[in-house]
Design goal:
Length: 86
């Protein structure tokens, strides 16, 4: 589907694109574009974002997410030990 078909394709499913939430992430195929226009709407280029609780980053593959999850697990383990649940 081309970007010009996006609004009409989404409309057939009763969907609307939230352009303020729509982001562009380069996953390692050349330099990131500074901006992108889709159907007259600007789309921000980002290096990282959290999606469904998982940190997605353009570089370092999944290492940032792995470190984040280890930190979260460690903090929960500490709380459980204090509550004497673990």
């Amino acid at each position: 589907m081309s970007s010009s078909n996006l609004p009409s394709s989404a409309a057939t499913l009763c969907l609307k694109t939230s352009w303020t939430k729509t982001k562009l992430q380069n996953l390692g195929s050349g330099p990131s574009p500074t901006s992108l226009q889709v159907d007259g709407n600007g789309v921000e280029s980002v290096d990282s974002f959290v999606y469904l609780g998982s940190l997605q980053k353009s570089e370092d593959n999944s290492r940032p997410d792995m470190m984040r999850r280890i930190s979260l697990a460690g903090s929960i383990s500490h709380v459980l030990l204090e509550l004497d649940i673990a």
